[in-house]
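job 3f2a | input accepted
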Amino acid sequence: MSITDWPVSERPREKLLQRGASSLSDAELLAIFLRTGVIGKSAVDLARELLTRFGDLTHLFAAGEKDFCATHGMGQAKYVQLQAVLEMSRRALQESMHNGDALNSPSAVRDYLRLLLRGREQEVFMVIFLDAQHRVIAAEEMFRGTLTQTSVYPREVIKRALALNAAAVIFAHNHPSGVEEPSQSDRMLTDALKQALQLVDVRVLDHFIVAGAGCLSFAEKGML
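job 3f2a | predicted structure (224 res):
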């Protein structure tokens, strides 16, 4: 059955306009992005097929072009559109962080980190550099590693902090395993970075671990 044959109140576009975007399921939101289905499948059916294939939105968003286009009805144009939407979302969240005190906008920081790091197959270590008023100067991916670990060099972090004249930093990295709890090496690295940065008068405000849908804060857990 075509979506146009559905009751008006149940059609994704009309439902969004009447009840708001939060009332829609993942498949319904994705169907609005897809716009059309294929022969024998509505846009919602196609959206459900994509979610079944990739498991969830996180893994769908992280999919490479080849895997994304392997689904019937998906092509390079749709892949490009999706990447553009994701990049606009990242930039909007980054602007939210830049426009105020990062510590007073913890949700913007978390949302930005989740969007940037969720679904990554390798560990990525990034640093958010802040000025004395805790406004964002830059957010940079500094190190990349393997599935389970990455090498982080305190000297490089210090050099970049001094180059940007940063007064404080926030660290973040992902756990591709989906386990949110910090490892012993995560704790040791955080302590080593904190001690090294203290020598150049740069404060470590937090360290986030993004794992699955979670985003653990060292500061909130009393681990800084």
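job 3f2a | The two ends are 56 Å apart (CA to CA).
job 3f2a | closed
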